[in-house]
Amino acid sequence: MTTAPRVDQVFDLDGLLSDEERAWQQRARAFAQERILPIIEDDFEQRHFRRELVHELGAQGFLGMHLEGYGCAGAGAVSYGLVCLELEAADSGWRTFVSVQGSLAMSAIRRYGSEEQKQRWLLGMARGELIGCFALTEPQGGSDPAAMTTTARRDGDDWVIDGAKRWIGLASVADVAVVWARVDDPTGPEGENAAGEGGAAVRGFLVPTTTPGYAATPIEGKLSMRASVQCDVVFDGVRIPADAMLPEASGLSGPFGCLNEARYGIVWGAMGAARSCLEAALERSREREVFGRPIGANQLTQAKLADMLLELEKGILLALHLGRLKERGQLTPAQISVGKLNSVREALEIAHQARTILGGDGITSAYPVMRHAANLESVRTYEGTDEIHQLIIGRALTGLNAF
């Protein structure tokens, strides 16, 4: 029997990458294989978030790696995407951690924060010594942030935040929460121009999670993302000083700018989960014998494998194209939506096809496929559902807003 090449060697992605990009990918792949894969099945089963890996991720330079200064690596968009791909090939939960920490919380502070806020938080977050979360989604739903009910009102020299958020990653382990709230006086100095995109008077605030009135409770009963933490968060008279506001974020353009950073990481990351599923199916197709020969020798099985590889490589090429656009400052929100919608949709289809090749064993933890499929159901929902991205693309095509 001939030796099968690795899935990613059938199409030579390496030939399209720089030495620096390959180095980041190799570092992330080694970390995923050595530090995550040996423990992830048990962590998923036990619903355990392995916090000790956070510092190690920081030591590798992965946290906020696409940002400049303040201890961040200043890596290119493609390098960051490749790291997301390799981490999600191990588990979506750990790519999600890097996204929440770097693309959401750190990006919000780096892009919209004061110099004092950047100095206070970013270096520790880049090192993995501090954890951040991004509190935008509310219990009634995440697709309409303009309808948020969490409020921040002025009381003397302070702000007081009341409300609730849901499905907030890392909120119970975070040191600081980036909280988005409606301001009570959009016509005053603090609210000037706060309406922004969508007409909502929304501002961002940095809330240390030790502040009285902040309470984060991990959501129980999850059948997906079980090795990571998502929470319900309540703000009950949370009092913070005036300088806790992010001075450069006005309106929904603030959180949307961060969401686009996270969506970009998903474009790459979902392809990592897909690759892992295809690799498991390919290996099993060469080992599992039915009717006297490996099932990989059957035409129907080879057709499935070929289709899976086709969509994987198309997805990675799309991610690479978007990365190059991002590095040139030309990437648009609609293009990100094309990538996010395609990558997650096709990753789920690859996971489902891989499961059929694995047979009954495919539903067990002997293979990563069902874990990836379950996680991808969450990835499909957060940072914009399929329907939201279809509407973003539709608006770009027609010039008509159907939201």
Automatic annotation (TrEMBL):
Domain Acyl-CoA oxidase/dehydrogenase middle: 133-238
Catalytic activity of the protein: glutaryl-CoA + oxidized [electron-transfer flavoprotein] + 2 H(+) = (2E)-butenoyl-CoA + reduced [electron-transfer flavoprotein] + CO2
Cofactor: FAD
Pfam families attached to this UniProt entry: Acyl-CoA_dh_1, Acyl-CoA_dh_M, Acyl-CoA_dh_N
EC number from the UniProt entry: 1.3.8.6
InterPro entries, per the entry: Acyl-CoA_DH_CS, Acyl-CoA_Oxase/DH_mid-dom, Acyl-CoA_Oxase/DH_mid-dom_sf, AcylCo_DH-like_C, AcylCo_DH/oxidase_C, AcylCoA_DH/ox_N, AcylCoA_DH/ox_N_sf, AcylCoA_DH/oxidase_NM_dom_sf
Keywords tagged on the record: FAD, Flavoprotein, Oxidoreductase, Transit peptide
Top EC class for this record: oxidoreductase
Domain Acyl-CoA dehydrogenase/oxidase C-terminal: 257-397
Sequence ranges assigned to domain Acyl-CoA dehydrogenase/oxidase N-terminal in this UniProt record: 18-129
Protein origin, superkingdom: Bacteria
Keyword Repressor attached: no
Alphabetical GO biological process terms: fatty acid beta-oxidation using acyl-CoA dehydrogenase; fatty-acyl-CoA biosynthetic process
This protein's pathway: Amino-acid metabolism; tryptophan metabolism; Amino-acid metabolism; lysine degradation
PROSITE patterns in the record: ACYL_COA_DH_1
GO terms of molecular function: fatty-acyl-CoA binding; flavin adenine dinucleotide binding; glutaryl-CoA dehydrogenase activity
Assigned protein family: Belongs to the acyl-CoA dehydrogenase family.
Name this polypeptide is given: glutaryl-CoA dehydrogenase (ETF)
Organism field: Agromyces ramosus
